[in-house]
Amino acid sequence: MDTSNLSLSALVGRKLFAGEDDALARLMLGAYVLVADARPFIGVLGKDGDSLLWTAGGAEFCDLLHAHAPREIDTAQVQPRSVAPLRLSDVLNRLGVAPEEIDDIADVIGLLDPGSAVSYRHLLRGREQRSFRLVLFRRRDIAGGHVQFSIHEMTGFERGNAKMREISRQILAAMESPFSKNDPRNLIALLNKVENDLNDLFSATDDRQIAIRANHIATGVSAAANRLVDILNAIDTDGSDGGHTGKDRVNESCPPSGIHCVLGNDWQGTQDLILARVGGELALKGEYAHAVRSAHEFVSNSTLIFIIAPCEGEYYVLSGPQRGEIYSSIPDLVRGIEVGVNSRHGAETFFSSLGQHENQTRFAVAGENMEVWGRPGLGMGWQAMIADAYTQGVDVRAMFHGLKNLWLHMQVLHVVKTRADVQEVRDALLGVIQKIHRRIAELKVMAQPNAGFPRKIRERVAGWFQGARRISDETGMVLDVRAPEDVLNMNIVCYGGQMEDTLSELVRNAHHSGARHIFVNAGVKGRYLEIEVVDDGRGMSPEKLAQAHKVIEEGRFDPVLSARPGGSGYGLLGAAQSVGRFVDGQLRLEPAAGRRGLKVALSFRVT
């Protein structure tokens, strides 16, 4: 091993300005510390696309690497080092990846152009029901464009997907089961009966018969809605989780891993061991030069955003658009990396917590939803990694809650008395039936093994208010929607029906809180679509409002928040999570101006 010191000016090929060497040294040291203790397994491939020139990290699945790898793999090594005898195919084999997948990965690597990055087309399945994500990037360097890679543990996300499928199966089974021992009806059969009865109602001409038939159908609809609430409460009591919450995203398959392969007990100690001053210039000590240089090159070329905070008041961005920036406060860091306006408070809270425990979350960065991992680092510091969101959380419970609300829309039949009434509600009822069938079909798809998520579609903003208008008509509330035509005509990519469900839920809750007037204002502010729903109902007490904020922040429902007897209390959380699936989406609650009422503000970035 070459033990001669390597000056930083020689490393960059030019004389450094005063103070520039110190900043560069901190960034290089930050890269070394970060990758040495990284959760993903990372490395650089040789020109053959398989041999490993350098590796580091692997804390996420060091158990598999140790148990199934040859002696050359040592994730607890004192420093990252070249492991030339090892190959990427060997590592994937140790993780339990199928041979045909390994061959396909080799083909993908061979097709990578310089400067191109790719996340392998799907998650890799490995031993012990573990899942991995492989990210590849071919450098533009003169040496031939070496490919660097990172392998990430995704088992926690996959467990969320498994929960989604299981909840879907439970819901469908419950919908096909009898209401009770004494009531053999089930929801699927009842839906078919309601649909047939509606067809008879639409063809009826005698007002007396219309009133009788409408009331009969409405009674069945109420029974169905009550049954849906029972199913939802049973799922909640069972403790199952219907979507991707923060808990789901934490990788429960691996215990928290501490600092295990970095020299020194703190930032200053590591710096003293690795850096030297030779002839007035900062230099890397020879025995560490290759490791530090390799780490810095990897991080600098990474498609991920790496951040390290060696101590309070120093926050280094090691890669990404802001590479090389050093910030003096977390709020400055959050603004500097372009965290979305609605995500900033959550991002500041997240980063502030990393000195105490590891965590994962999702927030918007530079106009895209991103997955964010973080954990404690040297001393009192921490480190974090930001990557494109690989998964799109879908809350099955929220979808089911929306299904229940669709049934509630049909309770308008209670006020249908004449042929004229039938003509007025006919199209709306047919639309509701169609949406119920679509929602059930989506649940059936998500209940299948290896199910994906529902596809996003384009919806006009004007269509989002249809359900709210129906509730207004049913209840006699005054709904005043104020929005410019260009806003109502906007086409937004989203999960079909979820925003209509969200606004319907807010309006229905307002009705149950005693509201008589609801004002909805929609407009575009900068890059954000903002919708405010303000009612004149009873509002929330300060205690209940604080509990609602906690529910939204933690992603855990609370039946106490239900606005109506027998409710699940899930509607508000479901609404917040639906909005949160948009880029930088946020739902906020606050008292309405004056003595009464509640204001719910929805905001998300539009592209």
TrEMBL record:
InterPro entries: HATPase_C_sf, HATPase_dom. Pfam families: HATPase_c (PF02518). The keyword Kinase applies. Residues 501-602 form the Histidine kinase/HSP90-like ATPase domain. One of its GO terms (molecular function) is kinase activity. The keyword Transferase applies. Keywords: Kinase, Transferase. Signal peptide: none annotated. This is Histidine kinase/DNA gyrase B/HSP90-like ATPase.
